[in-house]
Amino acid sequence: MALNKLTIIKVGGKIVEEEDTLKQLLHDFSTIEGSKILVHGGGRSATKLAERLGIESKMVDGRRITDSETLQVVTMVYGGLVNKNIVAGLQSLGVNALGLTGADMDIIRSEKRPVKDIDYGFVGDVKKVKADVLKLLIDQGIVPIVAPLSHDGKGHMLNTNADTMAAETAQAMSEYYDVSLVYCFEKKGVLMDEHDDDSVIPQLDKASYQKYVQEGIIQGGMLPKLENAFKSIEKGVSEVVITQASEIGKGKGTTII
Ligand SMILES: Nc1ncnc2c1ncn2[C@@H]1O[C@H](COP(=O)(O)OP(=O)(O)O)[C@@H](O)[C@H]1O
Ligand SMILES: CC(=O)N[C@@H](CCC(=O)OP(=O)(O)O)C(=O)O
C-alpha cells in the first residue's frame, strides 16, 4: 500500500526574524495540502538577543558554540518567542498548530555532543525521534511546529541545529509516510555564486557537493543543510529540496539526488 504524503518544511532564521517574510511564509505553509510539520530555526534572533545581553555568539561550521548562558538565551528565543509567534500566526490562518520542543512529549531526545577538536558546549546530537507520537498528533489534525531544541532525558535542554532537527524528523517519519523535506531560506537554492540569485544549481549529487565545498562555493550555514540533506536521502526520505520560501511546491530550487 502506498504511504500517505507528509511535507516537512524547515524555515531558517532570516525569514522568521522579519515580520513580513514570516507572514508570507506562514501564509504559504497554511496552503500546503495534507499532513505537514514545520521545523523552524531562529539563529539570527538568538544572536541579536545575546548581543543585547552582552553575550558573544560563536559559530563553527554553521553551528553555535553553546555555553550555559547561551543555552538560556536559545531556550527563551526558540522555545518561546519564535515558536509561539509562529503558532499564533498559524492559528490565525486556521491551522491547528501545536508548538513543541524535543522535550515536549519526549519527541526528540539527544546526547550532548562529545568534545573532540571543538567543544560545542550544550549542543545535542539527535538519538531518537518519536515518530509514532508525531503521527498520533498528525492523525488528530494537529500540525506540529518544532523548535530547534532537544533534551537529554536527564532534565537538560540541548541546542540542536534546526536543519538537523528537520532531517532527523524526516528520516524517522519515513517509516510511516512518503516524506518530502523542504529547506526554505532567503535564496533561490544552492547557488554557484552566493551573490547571484540566478546561479541556482538545479540538481546536486554528493560528489559535486564535496567538490564545491573544497572549492569554497558551498560554506557556512549551507554545510549543515546539505550534510543533513544527503543523509536524509540515504535514510529513506523520498525528496529533499532547497528553495526560496515563496517557491514551495513549484518545482524550483535545488533538488538533492
Ligand atoms: N553555495 C551557496 N548557495 C547559497 N547559500 C550559501 C552557499 N554557500 C553558503 N551559503 C550561505 O548559507 C546561508 C544559509 O545558511 P543559514 O543562514 O544557516 O540558513 P537558514 O536561513 O536556514 O538559517 C546563506 O544565507 C548563504 O549565506
Ligand atoms: C547547535 C546550533 O547551531 N543550533 C542552532 C539552532 C537554530 C538554528 O539552526 O537556526 P537557523 O535555522 O536559523 O540557522 C543555533 O543556535 O544557531
Automatic annotation (TrEMBL):
Which top-level enzyme class is recorded in the Swiss-Prot or TrEMBL entry? transferase
Annotated localization: Cytoplasm
Q: Where is this site: Transition state stabilizer?
A: 10, 225
Annotated GO CC locations: cytoplasm
What the entry lists under InterPro entries is as follows: AceGlu_kinase-like_sf (IPR036393), AcgluKinase_fam (IPR004662), ArgB (IPR037528), Asp/Glu/Uridylate_kinase (IPR001048)
Give start and end of each Aspartate/glutamate/uridylate kinase domain: 5-243
Transmembrane segments annotated in the record for this chain:
none
Record's catalysed reaction(s): N-acetyl-L-glutamate + ATP = N-acetyl-L-glutamyl 5-phosphate + ADP
CDD domains in the cross-refs: AAK_NAGK-like
Output the Gene Ontology terms for molecular function.
acetylglutamate kinase activity; ATP binding
Main location group:
cytoplasm
- What is any one GO biological process for this UniProt entry? L-arginine biosynthetic process via ornithine
Q: Give the residues the record marks as binding substrate.
A: 42-43, 64, 159
List the EC numbers from the record. Answer: 2.7.2.8
Which family does the record claim for this protein?
Answer: Belongs to the acetylglutamate kinase family. ArgB subfamily.
This molecule's function is given as: Catalyzes the ATP-dependent phosphorylation of N-acetyl-L-glutamate.
User: PANTHER family per the record?
Assistant: N-ACETYLGLUTAMATE SYNTHASE, N-ACETYLGLUTAMATE SYNTHASE, MITOCHONDRIAL
NCBIfam families, alphabetized: argB
This protein is called: Acetylglutamate kinase
Report the source organism. Answer: Dysgonomonas alginatilytica
